[in-house]
Queue: 2 jobs
Job 1
Amino acid sequence: MLTRPTLLKILSTLILFGAWEIAGRIPVSYAFPTFIESMQALARMTFDGTLFVAYGETLKPLVIGILISTVLGITIGLFIGLSGWFDWLMSPIFIVMQAAPLAALIPLLVMAYGIGLTSKVFVVCIMAMPVIVLNTSSAVRNTPGSLKEMGRSYLASDTEIITKIIIPSASPLIFSGLRLGISAGFIGAILSELKITPTGVGDIITFSRSIADYPSMYAAIFSIILLAVLFLNLLESIENYLFEGNNRGYVSD
Amino acid sequence: MRHLLKHAAIAAFAVGIAAPAAQADTIRIALAETPSDELAAFFVALERAKANGLEYEWTAFSDEELAIQAVLSGQMDIGFGTPYAAMQRSKAPIRIVFQLSKLKFFPVTSQKYEKLEDLDGEPIMLHSRGGGTDSIANVIEGKYDITFGERSYVPGSANRIVALMAGQTDATIVDLSNKNKLMKQAGDKFNVLPMFEVEASDEALFANLDWIQNNEEAVNTFVAALASTWKDMSEDPTIISRETNPDGPIGQLPAEILGNLDTFYTDAVEGGLYDPDGGGRKAAEADMEWYSAAGQLEGDPGDLNIDDFWYMAPLDAATGN
């Protein structure tokens, strides 16, 4: 059954791809392929396995970085939200991290951690973690005081107040932090592959560009955006499963 | 609202990149790197062209591919690089007018290896997949009938030298100045393997064919200035440091780089990095062969028409051919 949001989504997708196709046919630039050419390249790379091999490389820093950022980010965020002392100690680091021009800092990371996986995981974490930490901490700090008082008056322990009141109440903001953080993590993964050493999807992008195979280049970029969208949808399903009350019926991505 | 924004974004995007190249009197040059000692000769030529009435402005891009894209889309007039693949594959009407430098790269290794044949099956570190050093590696494989082992990619000759000295790799291919730097610092620990001569282009100057034909005078002035600089430089490399404008982008570089200009250009001229005649047909033919062997051009090099890749008239006029 087609609902209005679904229809709108299909319509805006069609408009976007249509505009892409038209722009490619004009062409706005010799280096800009049409949507159809790019999709053919995507299909070719999918069926000959190139894309899977590439994602085998790209997903390593991405998955490790996102896991670290999620677990560590939410934990640190909780501590910052609960303790003023921790807030004083840690918040500035993440605020600076969020504002730092990462691409300019990559040479420093390479100097410290070399050109391997470690640097790439760091890039993903630096992109993903600040927004997760800051969102979590502000959500925890802004838990309604009346709810916590109620818990205390029913003799709940500190652990119970955290797990049964603070976390559920903070969950919508924590998850919106996760959504932002994970999208930033995807950016970080590709950035690290373009800026440190070209591997995986970053390698397809640079290599196709250097041999002027622009459809493949745009297909690789398209595939990573598609993966990010799918992943964010999955995250939303997880949120709805864990915290059913968070679903306010807004149009999902 | 979301829709409206999307429409607006698409419109802005389409307008932004479809804006046609303005016919300006000032030529816009897309450099493939920030001004450095390697570009000093180019800037000397620009000064000479300026004295003959050429107005120019330059923008430094972070890599060659971006410079090519900027020229392809008409946002820049003249670019740096060797866009053979773009010319053939995307049928872009761009043509090379001058060879700035040749692909002079050197295989350097630890003392484990003494000749290229020793590298059969051994790992090697290169710039990037599909890049210049990668193409050199491909041609070496063909000529010496060897196959390199795993290829790893680290952009920048200077970075590969660091990796070589730190023992992270035993074999790599680097440019002339970094080879000299390495041999000066630790010549006893590393070998430069003997290799065949390469005449193909590393950096060339290219532009849209329409633009070249509509701005013939400017292109002729520019190419003539380049040809005269390259010729004078081949006779006396120290003219580069003498003619460098102290207020220009090269003159503003740190004193230690400026102090090394004479050594850099003397080595480069001796090493055959620059063709005093600006390449021309000889370079074009070498390029066809080289870039076909390297996999950037498709088809038999003999069947490729150099007029589809080079526009010779300005260089012919400048060199009196």
Note: DSSP finds 14 helices and ten strands in chain B.
Job 2
Amino acid sequence: MALALKETFSEKTNKALGVNSEDAKLTLTYLSLAFIILFLGGTLGLLQGLNRAGLLELPSWLNYYQVLTAHGILLVVVFTTLFMVGYFYSGVSHTLGGLLPKVRKIAWTALGSMLFGVALVAATVFMGEASVMYTFYPPMQASPWFYIGLVFVVLGVWLAAFGVFISAANWKKRNRGQHLPMFSFFAVGGFLLLFLGSLGVTAEVLMLIPWAFGWTETVNVMLSRTLFWAFGHTAVNVWYLVAVSAWYVAVPKIIGGRTFSDTLARVVVILSVILNVPGGFHHQIIDPAIGEGIKFMHVFMSLSISLPSLLTAFAMFAIFERAGRKKGAKGLLGWIKKLPWGDVRFLAPMIAMITFIPAGAGGIAQTNNQLNQVVHNSLWIVGHFHLTVGVTVALTFFGITYWLIPYLSKRELTPKLNKLGVIQTLMWTVGMYLMAGAMHWVGLLGSPRRTSFSTYGDHATALGWSPYLFSLAIGGTLLFLAVVLMVYIAFHLMFKAPKGNTEFPIAEPEDDAAPTPQWTERWGLWIVIAFAIISMGYVIPVVDMIVNAPPGSPPFRTW
Amino acid sequence: MKMHRAEEIWLVISVGVLILSMVVTGYQAFAMDMAPPSHKETIDPQKVDQTAPFDNPGVFQTEEGKYEVVMTLQIFSFTPNKIEVPAGSEVTFTMTSKDVVHGFQIAGTNVNAMVMPGHIQKITQTFEEPGEYLILCNEYCGAGHQMMSTTITVK
């Protein structure tokens, strides 16, 4: 009882005095590193874009494929993970009344493990020992230390995940019968999905390490690839879920609105956790060794992932319309004018959401088997994930930065910095649309992904791609400038912006909102269903790949 | 959870679109024989040169207007290369990899297939339009990946 009182007290002081300084330090460290990684990854992206258009020749000690491997891993895994952990931990601290000391310790250990892992991975890539891309498909074999680095990254992610689970369980014990606050509900869902998604790749990496040391001679190529994609696609959907959490929790508050439906938001989290993992299979639609029937079943499994997004799309526009009408908007579309377009904390996530309309539609199209065959491994795909991860996820993360960093550093977003943020958002948007637009179009014409500049012996077809690749390079250059601006803004908000009070925006439910049903809290059931769906997707093909496997492949080092 | 009427309509329409796309995809795959390449034969990846038919790669006429191209993919080339077929031919490519994962794509057509070591992949295309088509590897396979290409000439 005394303990419970003390805890409630700490929750109250947390609300009154703002963030616990030790929790603030934790998140600010994660975010600083995330933005440093964004700068490195963005610089590599610029080099790549210029090379791909034939405008820049890269030196042999830092060739295109090293740059591409590092760009992919740094931005799609490291930047996103660091941001996710930093952001979710700050929100867990805020909504659950401060982090427990042991959870804080877990989060620092997680950071150490991830950084050690990333250092190993980056070192092997830059030494030319691991030009194997983000997907590291065997039988191409990197240095064993590359895979060991990945193990430490995964270990860090798991520690961070369990820190959040412990926080949530502890809060539930102290607040029996109450719903976990929505922000923390998203954090639990996001980390649970990341954990489920990482199981496959962990199994793969544990097979690859003894092979890379030469203790086993051959490797099962199809199995490795399948286990990778159980992670590869789930990961990006985790980053998307992180972005969605800010749309439901923070954005309504920023525009002066209320949450649409607490239950709906929780259903979106639950569906995302349950449905996502088998989605990775659509990366293998034109693979051998998988039958047409299984591939067709996976069209269904992949399309089902879009269901939570369709629910979100409706909810978001409903929130905007209600908020606009409350401010006196008239007519069918008058509410659009009432939205705070000049406020970067709204503008950035709003463009992120709007972009998910074409990006999600493209995803739905390309997961249908025959349409996938048209664009598989073409630049279309690269365009697709630069819209989803590069705009929808990244711009939402930037939008979060404008309030999260000043909240933690006890500073304020000034009108001047807000303006700079608007400029950054527009530069990013124009750059990404130029680049991703060109990638989509030239991909349809047949230009492949993951290749350095090539005219294929001056073949007329390939020469016809040049203007699009030039547009790609212009977009990439604009994006690099936008990265520099964003990193400047982030550190300015951390160390230079004027002192002040910034709130952590948490939207409130409507006054007449229906209570959220208790079944939303049944995590045990969701995990069981998730495993059932993962089994539906994977048991038959994986068993087939093991039982009917050809003799394994010896290692190759082809770079 | 009580749903707004408009939300119900929205969900019915959007789920309807998803189902329609599945029906079209399924119909094309199973009734029109347009399913993506999914061949299931295997081969010892270290004995490709000694295993039929890959011990003798080349272009073979199987019947009037039909050809089979038996092809190996290896860093950073296709064997055979510079293929020629008459216009209107139906060509089946039977492929495997001698080393790492490769991709087989003919730019300007829907021919696109992953080619893995240990697995045999097949894909069929009818070439109606004469011309010199660009064949390229679309899966990163190493330092010379950007040079891995050849052509198929349709006369």
Note: Chain B has a mean pLDDT of 95.
